[in-house]
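Hi F.,

I've been meaning to write this up properly since the lab meeting, where we talked about keeping a consistent format for the predictions we share between groups. The idea is simple: the sequence comes first, exactly as it goes in, then the structure tokens exactly as they come out, then a line or two of notes. No screenshots and no reformatting. I'm using this chain as the first example so we have something concrete to point to.
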Amino acid sequence: MQNEILDLIGQQYGCTAGTGIYRMIDLWQSWWQGKEHRFHEYWENAAFGRPVKREMYRLHMAKKVCEDWASLLFNDKTYLQLDDPAAEKWVGILLDNTDFWRRCNHLVEKAFALGSGACLLRVRDLPKGCTNLTEAAGIPLTLSFDFVDAGHILPISAEEGRITEAAFISEIRNRGETILYAEIHTKEEDGYVIRNRYFGEVDGSLTEIRRPGMPPEEIRTGCPFPFFSILTPNIHNAVDEGCGLGQSIFADAIDCLKGVDLAFNNFCRDLKLGGKKVFINQSLVNRDDNGNLYTPDDVAQQLFVTIGDGDIADTPMITEHNPSLRSEENRDALQAQLDYLSFRCGFGTRHYLFSGVQGKAQLTATQYMGERQDMRQNLSKHQQNMTAFLRAVIRPVLWLGEFVLGLPMNSMSAVHIRYDDSYFVDSESERSRDLREVEAGLLTQEEYRQKWHIGA
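Output, unedited:
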């Protein structure tokens, strides 16, 4: 049903994205969820030649890669700093009250997995019949945020690779009824307009519906800034250029993900099949009155009688087989595949390095920091997109605060994003160095205070 709405709105408003990008989003999502059926399921011949469906052992590295990028880009030490103190305080309270930080961290993970994610600003408690936000000036409104992933974003217009108009599809479940909500943002001369459309299944077909309590069909914001912000990894979309949607961080590393799971599956199967195998001559096997087989060990027997004239040394009655676990070979193979994956996803070659594996030589601290340079360069690149995303989230919030809620603040206040750099830099050493620069007059006390105390 969701695909039907995407097609319907795409026909009405046009769409900059082709169907190919959504097929890739489905593929990326299956890897992020940890199971791509066409690869992770296979058939084996069991007893008597019967085919049995098996599932590969999986390491779920696609999700781990995205979790790590989310942790580096948006963690508990990431904060906003505004030039207007009143605006900074008000925005900070709003973000805390709406659980923005935690939910945005989840959005970063999914945006890196599926190529894109969006944050939507919602205005609630509008007076009945009010369809223009400027008419609600001075009325206390409730602001909230919603987050959607790439599969629910339909770009309508894009300029220089950035989405300027879009529709967002979400699912609402109410007392057993599933309703699909399409929120369409378009830009007009007097600012952005938001149209709210709801669809349900009536008599087996998709039908537009309206129910009491639903938001107005059209809200004219009067705001020059969109009430949505799109986040993408800072890599070029080779699947559908110019559509505005991004590309998964592991889009070009699918073969590496397969290599990791193949190596891990082989490792686990060797462990599973590596148990001791004991073969005994059938003459030592007896049956009870019910026909059940039992061996001498089942009755704790210690005195046995050989059968026949052969030498027991030449034809042993009991033979054991101890399969090789190939632990070292499997570890090396798995580590090699993790190195390839780490490199292809922008972390450098040793991000997933386990102690003792390839552990013939340990890295010095200097070598280890050098190995992180690839990651640091890519992190700086992705932070550019993250900064633009967060500024686009805050800008309409400030506009609403000044022009609709009537708060004493500057809606055009500069917005700065401060990121955690402790993964690459020793914070205490850097802080001591900055103190020495303050004493030497190379750094002002205000610059030091902004860097180390604001947002701490």
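Notes:
Residues 398 and 411 are 5 Å apart (CA to CA).
The two ends are 46 Å apart (CA to CA).

If this format works for you, I'll send the rest the same way.

G.
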